[in-house]
Amino acid sequence: MKKSFLPLTFAVACFILAACSSVKYEGESLPALSSDAPVKFYLASELDKMPGAVVLGTAEYTARPTLTSKDIRAILQDAARDEGANGIRIISMEKIPDGEARRDQINNTGAPQWNVTDNSDTSLTKMKNTINYSDVRDKEKTIYKTFVRAEFLSVPERETNVETRP
Questions:
Q1: Could you report how far apart the first and last alpha carbons of the chain are, in Å?
Q2: Nearest Cα residue to 148 out of 95, 101, 107
Q3: Res 163 pLDDT > 50
Q4: CA 59 to CA 55: how far, in whole Å?
Q5: Strand 40-41 to strand 87-102: parallel, antiparallel, or no bridges (unpaired)?
Q6: How far is CA 117 from each of CA 6, 70, 141, rounded to the nearest angstrom?
Q7: How many whole angstroms separate alpha carbon 126 and alpha carbon 114?
Q8: d(CA 74, CA 64)
Q9: Residue among 162, 146, 18 nearest 82 (CA)
Q10: Which of 1, 16, 46, 72 has a CA positioned 20 to 30 A from the CA of residue 54?
């Protein structure tokens, strides 16, 4: 019984995570790229210097509060590969309130990372002092999910010309 429970649990967890992390895409699709194909992020100023870059479409993604920016980038890269894009330009990122959590939940090192309003050093120092010198229950803090809009791009491979001098 135990041997069949673990794979089943893993399959259900993967299904739930996949359902929660879908990227909405509207636009042209090219043949999918391989899973190890590089997908780069570009700034608008970089694309101005690349006349062959083509915008294939627009993607939207709403990330859970526990996802880091690295996780969000990886999800967007995977979605771009599926659509045949080898480049991404972030159009906008917005934080949307998604509930509240106690500060001890946010700061618990064993817990996932939370996307909160301010995590600067001064805020952390103030928070530690408040927790240490107060025996009142700590107030809850708003946590945020992140909404991302991006363009998927087809960027031509650059040829590297090496100049040789006589």
A1: 74
A2: 95
A3: no
A4: 11
A5: parallel
A6: 37, 18, 9
A7: 18
A8: 14
A9: 18
A10: 72
CA dihedral 66, 37, 79, 49 (to 10 degrees): 100
In this structure, what token pair is assigned to residue 111? 């817990």
**Domain range enclosing 114:** 21-154
What is the rounded distance in angstroms from the CA atom of residue 164 to the CA atom of residue 113?
A: 50
Long-range own/partner contacts, residues 13-21 (CB < 8 A, 24 or more apart): 20/64, 21/61, 21/63, 21/64, 21/75
In a domain, 162, yes or no: no
Number of domains in the chain: 1
Residues in the chain, total: 166
| CA–CA gap between residue 86 and residue 80 (Å, rounded) | 7
Of the pLDDT bands very low, low, confident and very high (cuts 50, 70, 90), residue 10 is: very low
pLDDT band at 65 (very low <50, low <70, confident <90, very high): confident
Task: Give the global pTM.
Answer: 0.65
Tell whether 161 is covered by a domain. no
